[in-house]
Structures are given as C-alpha cells and as structure tokens.
Amino acid sequence: MTERSLSHPTSLHYREGGQTVQVGDRIIYRGLLPWRRWSGFVAYVPGQCPPHPELTDEYWGIELEDGRLLVWPHMPAELPVSKRLSFVSRGGEGERKGLPPDRPLGFDGDGEDDS
Fold this sequence. Notes:
The chain is mostly beta strands. It has a domain at 26-89. The protein is 0% helix and 25% strand. The protein contains no helices and five strands. It has a five-stranded antiparallel sheet, with no helix packed on it. Strand 1 and strand 2 (37-44) form a beta hairpin. The chain is globular, with a radius of gyration of 14 Å.
C-alpha cells in the first residue's frame, strides 16, 4: 500500500456534476462506440466498504449489470473518474452495496482474465 499525502484529495468525484463517488451509486458506463452503454453500480471505494484482499486501498471499481467488474487505480489527484462513467442516482435501501471481500475477481493484476 502506498502512503497518501494529506495535501492530495482522497475522495473521487464524478466529472459531470462533481458529486462524490459513493458505494452503491447507480451509474452508466459508455463504451468507445457511442451506442454501447451498460448500467451498473459503484462496487468498491477504499474506506467506504470492507477491504477486498485483491484491491486494498489502491483501486476502486464498478460492477456492470452483466456481472463484469471494472477497476481503476485510486489516485484522485492524478487520475480523475473516467468521462465514460456517468452518475445516475444514489443507491436506495435494500440495493446491493459493495463488493463482498470473498468474491474472486478473476484476474491477478497482470491484465489477463484468469476465468
């Protein structure tokens, strides 16, 4: 794990509207082709849910409706939230919140799918 400087922000914000990214947020992820869109939710943000052994505090991620998990490095000052990710609404009561710590992610950090 890396040590974070207190002078750098530690929370993520959506580019559109500037809302803080929160676990459970409903989102739309746009693909490279304009007509490709997937619904999903924010599944993992360091400090907002129990640590996942494969992600720790160095990554954050979303889960798409088809079950795919997309992760990015958690570097709010250096790497803002992707422009292809749009906030839809905050998650409601009874909705899925967070990535279970025992869920296998299907990759080992080398960029290759292990499933």
